[in-house]
Amino acid sequence: MPDIEVRNVTKIYEERIVALYKVSVKVFDGEYVCIIGPSGSGKSSLIKVISGIIEPDEGEVYIGGRLVNNVPISERGLGLVMQDILLFPHMNVWDNVSYGPLVRGLGYDRAEFIGNEVLRSMSLHLRRSAMPHELSRGTQQKVAIARAVAAGARILLLDEPLGSVDPRAAKTLRFELRHLVKDLKLTALHITHNQEEALSIADRIIVMRKGRVEQVGTPFEIYARPKTPFIAKFIGGEASFLEGLVEETMDGRVKVNLGEEHVLVESSIGFRIGEKVVLGIRPEHVSIVRAGGSRPDNSISGIVKEVNFLGSYYRYMVETGGGNVLVKVPRLSAPSVSIGSRVFLTLDRAYIFKYPREGLDKAIAYE
Ligand code: ADP
Ligand code: MG
After folding, report:
1. Residue 207's beta-bridge partner residues?
2. Do 167 and 97 fall into the same domain?
3. Which CATH number belongs to the domain containing residue 241 in this structure?
């Protein structure tokens, strides 16, 4: 049962750098979990604690239900794959992949069987005689993963494995990686700084920030129900934030005063009248129309300050009384507005958050 459980793990480096603070996460048997977060948020430290490269100051790590603190790296049944590709440069693909089973003393026939199975499942069997330097970085990384699997790893710990692969190839490889893990019934914990990669292949995503777990959920939950302004900004990208005061609360809805105007937003949590709040607005959740005709219900007025053509989308920066709002509209449904146009924005959806104690700027800062 190759599952992973991290309980209450704290790791503090010298000079009181808190890399992990009371982190608890669980990765279930057969699951593909991605970790994302700004750089320095503790992603690599978490994988190092699980693999045994570093010992936590506090807390426990369980693999397959067994406490592995103090169990050596080689006995944890893991395959660790990092951004820097580590293949034996003087050995061909086949020798790299069959090395693990041979070292485990499985005998030549068994090593050959396992090596072949893994190469086939990763569509690498035609490259078995190639030397690492003859392969693209993406294929080299596949060989590195094949080698870890052939050596008996049931759990893959991947620290930005596609980070140095050409982005085009990485887009295909991410799906191959997921298929490999699912086909071979492995369990994977995959760090990436690419949120699109995480959203597209993970069963669940762990978002880390400043050594803590900020939110865990399915890609849909993380995108559609961000728990904090930080998550709303970090996932999806280009969210705008407006500060306001709660004016009225109704059944599942809150009326927010934005200074010059007010909007109604849905909310599953309660707010007090007069309470300071933040609205998080995704660019794809705003409709924009040119002012002039009748004003849409529940809309905010503003002036277009910037228009960018992005191929399939137009992006507008709109100045409103409460602050700037970014809007993205598919090209074919874009309104005819230009810089200086007065527009009405309708929020098809907005996230409402309690005003963060540390202030909005700090709450959404990546650092
Ligand atoms: P991430 O992988 O999310 O970028 P890391 O886990 O590598 O983050 O690092 C978390 C924090 O711990 C950072 O502030 C980093 O500078 C610090 N850190 C990492 N490794 C060491 C180390 N060996 N000694 C001191 N500080 C470290
Ligand atoms: Mg890292």
Report:
1. 36, 215
2. yes
3. 2.40.50.140
